[in-house]
Design brief:
Blueprint (H helix, E strand, L loop, with lengths): L1 E4 L2 E3 L15 H6 L8 E6 L3 E6 H13 L1 H12 L2
Antiparallel strand pairs: 1-2, 3-4
């Protein structure tokens, strides 16, 4: 593992097994506190690639977005008023 920039890492390469599985390097699991049983979210962009994110982090983000939806709809409603 090498930290290529503060908070940015290169963990090396992984090989995809016959069943499409990968092994997340130990160093990556330690840095991102990934434990057995954790749920991970796999997202992708055909041009930019694939990212793996801990599902609970995305859940927290989604909840924060939902909490702020009232603020967004209030702003949109204000902008619609003449």
């Amino acid at each position: 593992m090498s930290e290529i920039q503060k908070g940015k890492y290169l963990f090396g390469t992984v090989k995809i097994g016959e069943r499409g599985q990968i092994v997340i390097p130990k160093e990556a699991r330690e840095v991102f506190n990934i434990k057995p049983g954790d749920n991970l979210l796999l997202v992708g962009d055909e041009e930019k690639g694939i990212a793996i994110v801990k599902a609970d982090l995305m859940k927290d983000l989604a909840l924060k977005l939902l909490e702020n939806m009232n603020n967004v709809t209030d702003i949109v409603d204000l902008e619609k008023k003449p």
